[in-house]
Design a protein that fits this description.
By secondary structure, this protein is α/β, with parallel strands linked by helices. The protein contains 6 helices and 6 strands; from the N terminus they run αβαβαβααβαββ. The chain has one domain: Rossmann fold (3-Layer(aba) Sandwich). Strand 2, helix 3 and strand 3 form a beta-alpha-beta unit. The radius of gyration is 15 Å and the shape is globular. It starts with a helix and ends with a strand.
Length: 165
């Protein structure tokens, strides 16, 4: 699957990637294509860090979430020695995204923190068992996202890593 197909087929997209990799071009394209762009506000809830994200997923219509619990899975251990999000919570979130006909868009590109890049790759590989993943190189977003919006029934229920770039 390539990015334009995910844009045409998904009702929910979660855009995430290492710090310093620009997501603004993709988010602008998502907004242009009718996605509501949302970001969880404030700090993670101390008892249930997934709560704000589940509230976002309850919104009607096409939804794009900028950043997610994956960021905490990666940067929590790197910055504080542990994540405030458990793997059970992260997998539950991934399944909720998939149930909303969604996918995780994993942004890649030039990043200074190679440790975070590797941690993202490991996290995304695990989450790909529960939600479709589209990997997008930020450098590729300098070109228009083209292609027909052909139906892809294999996206629904497809639990595999999907890559572009």
């Amino acid at each position: 699957m390539i990015l334009h197909q995910a844009l045409a087929q998904c009702r929910t997209l979660v855009v995430d990637g290492p710090d310093g990799i620009g997501r603004s071009a993709l988010l602008a394209e998502l907004a242009r294509r009718g996605f509501m762009i949302r970001r969880s506000r404030g700090h993670l809830h101390h008892v249930n860090p997934t709560q704000p994200y589940h509230e976002l997923l309850a919104a009607p219509g096409r939804l794009a979430i900028d950043g997610s619990l994956v960021h905490e899975l990666v940067y929590g251990p790197l910055r504080r020695g542990r994540s405030r999000v458990t793997w059970i919570q992260a997998l539950d979130f991934a399944e909720a995204v998939a149930e909303r006909n969604g996918a995780l868009i994993h942004m890649t590109g030039e990043a200074d923190d190679t440790e975070a890049v590797g941690a993202y790759e490991r996290a995304v590989r695990t989450l790909a068992q529960h939600v479709p993943v589209v990997t997008v190189d930020a450098a590729d977003l300098g070109h228009p996202i083209r292609g027909p919006a052909s139906p892809l029934p294999q996206l629904r229920g497809c639990i595999q890593a999907l890559t572009i770039g």
